[in-house]
Amino acid sequence: MNALTVLLLVCICVAPGVQVSVQVVNLPRDEETGPEACAHVCSGVMRYNNNIGGEWRDSRFYPGKVYRQVDISPCNFVSPPVVTMNTAGTGICPALTVDDVYTGYFYVYSVNDATASDMKKWKCDVNWTASGFTCKKD
């Protein structure tokens, strides 16, 4: 067995025991934080063609902008989490902003002008990370 093989085996055997510390300092809307043991980080990608919660839509309230709902329900948050996100696709997808965060979903709106058909044509996915709590203090 060479040194590289031994190192790989050590990394594989030790890695499952590595502890990860998660600390959520505060939450949107002055929500109360939960117990440290319930702090949770969850991330995913809402694909441009995933229609859970609706597809890309042209905004009636913000002319020239598009929006969509992003599903985070599998994370099981008990209060609205802190959300960060970006967009990526095959075209030049516009910058997005997070709006209206809830326990199971949030909305994103385009900062620059775009249409729903642009977002589909450019295959604009939403990459997101949410940090929050999966239980409340007693």
Polypeptide structure, described:
With 138 residues, this protein is of the alpha+beta class. It has 2 helices and 7 strands; from the N terminus they run αββββββαβ. It has helices at 3-14, 116-121; strands at 39-46, 57-58, 66-71, 82-88, 96-101, 105-110, 125-133. The strands form 2 sheets. The protein has a 4-stranded antiparallel sheet. A 3-stranded antiparallel sheet has the order 1-7-4, with no helix packed on it. Strand 2 (57-58) and strand 3 (66-71) form a beta hairpin. Mean pLDDT is 86; it is low at 4-14.
User: Helices and strands, in N-to-C order?
Assistant: HEEEEEEHE
Ends distance: 53 Å
Radius of gyration: 19 Å
Subunit organisation of the chains: single chain
- Derived from helix and strand composition plus strand pairing, the structural class reads alpha+beta
Strands side by side in the biggest sheet:
2-3-6-5
Major β-sheet annotation: 4 strands, antiparallel
Q: State mean pLDDT (0 to 100 scale).
A: 86
Helices and strands in order, then pairings?
Blueprint: H1 3-14, E1 39-46, E2 57-58, E3 66-71, E4 82-88, E5 96-101, E6 105-110, H2 116-121, E7 125-133
